[in-house]
TrEMBL record:
Biological process, per Gene Ontology: DNA repair
Site, Transition state stabilizer: residue positions: N147
Keywords from the named record: Hydrolase, Magnesium, Manganese, Metal-binding
Protein name (database record): Exodeoxyribonuclease III
Pfam family, one: Exo_endo_phos
Length: 258
DNA sequence: ATGGTTGTACGACAA
């Protein structure tokens, strides 16, 4: 079973790329973030014609998440219990054997800002929800844009990013709480390599200069972590025309016999 | 260089 996550930074702009990527990669599940489209304007028909079911939780201008799935999603939940407000950043669904939680963690803007406090509160609510979902679903994946580079090896220039938003100690502790709740970082089951990135700022030719961070993640429950076959960042869409600033992350699990 | 670019929606604001 192959699952993927991609912050598309406007589904309206990126829909042709997403459909082309689905056709080329054929994942079983694709979690999208920053769709930036209200539910009444979501392009559901285009996904159905591509052979996928889709559920979504969007709003005007900001945020927005969606789960695209070969198998029909069930037990859909579009709000994070205990979240500070109703921003559309969370979507859970059961897709065949997998419980899937798609997250768009708040960016946090700057360490110490109001938005930074909101981010930490949101992540604390997420950790509580992960504990609850883990108790009910042995095959759980939590994936999306976490807006946290967990360690220095996930940052192109650790000194430049030292204690800055996306790489600060409080954010890394909030991320580690998700792992301590029982999830593993699926990419780190495959490689300890430094310099694997999923996001590059649009400014300053950051992509061309290799100035990226690994902030998009696939986290998984213990039963899945023992069944990781592959995990990679697909940089091809980031190199194409009018790209999102994020690249997709794809993970494959061997579910035979489970 | 307190810079730069993109998306939303047409002026800031978020990222």
């Amino acid at each position: 079973m192959r699952v993927a996550t991609w912050n598309v930074n406007s589904l309206r702009v990126r829909l042709p790329q997403v459909l082309a990527w689905l056709a080329a990669e054929a994942p079983d599940v694709l979690a999208l973030q920053e769709t930036k489209v209200p539910d009444e304007a979501f392009p559901a028909l285009e996904f159905r014609e591509a052979g996928y079911h889709v559920v979504f939780a969007g709003e005007k201008t900001y945020n927005g998440v969606a789960i695209v799935s070969r198998l029909p999603p069930a037990e859909v939940a579009d709000a994070l219990p205990g979240a500070p407000d109703g921003q559309r950043r969370y979507l859970a669904a059961t897709c065949g054997p997998l419980r899937v939680i798609d997250v768009y963690v708040p960016n946090g803007q700057a360490v110490g800002s109001d938005k930074f406090a909101y981010k930490l509160a949101w992540m604390e609510a997420l950790a509580a929800q992960v504990r609850a979902e883990l108790a009910r679903h042995p095959l759980l994946v939590v994936l999306g844009d976490f807006n946290v580079a967990p360690e220095d090896r996930d940052v192109h220039d650790p000194e430049l990013w030292r204690e800055r938003v996306l790489a600060s100690t409080p954010e890394r502790e909030a991320f580690r709480a998700l792992l301590e709740a029982g999830l593993c970082d699926v990419l780190r089951r495959i490689t300890g390599e430094a310099g694997i990135h999923t996001w590059w700022d649009y400014r300053m030719n950051a992509y061309r200069r290799g100035m990226g961070l690994r902030i998009d993640h696939v986290l998984a429950s213990p039963a899945l972590c023992g069944r990781v076959r592959a995990c990679r960042v697909d940089r091809a869409p980031r190199e194409g025309e009018r790209p999102s600033d994020h690249a997709p992350v794809v993970a494959e699990f061997d579910l035979a016999g489970s």
